[in-house]
Amino acid sequence: MPIPRTTSQWVYDQSTGLELEERVPIPELEQGNCLLQIHAVSLNYGEIARMKGKYPQEGPQRRVAGGDGVATVIATGSGVTEFQAGDRVCPIWQQTYQTGPLTPEIENTALGLTIDGTLREYAVLAASGLVKAPTHLTHREAATLTCAAVTAWNGLFGLSDRRLKAGDWVLTQGTGAVSLAAVQFAVAAGAHVVVTTSTTEKAKLLKSLGVEHVLNYRENPSWGESAKALTPGGRGFHHIIELGGQRSLRESLQAVRFEGVVSLIGLMEELETIQNTPGITFPELFLRYATVRSLHVGSRQQFQEMVDFMEQHAIRPVVNEEEFKFEDCIQAYEKVWEGGHTGKIVVNVSSA
Question: What pLDDT, on a 0 to 100 scale, did the predictor assign at position 272?
Answer without folding.
Answer: 53
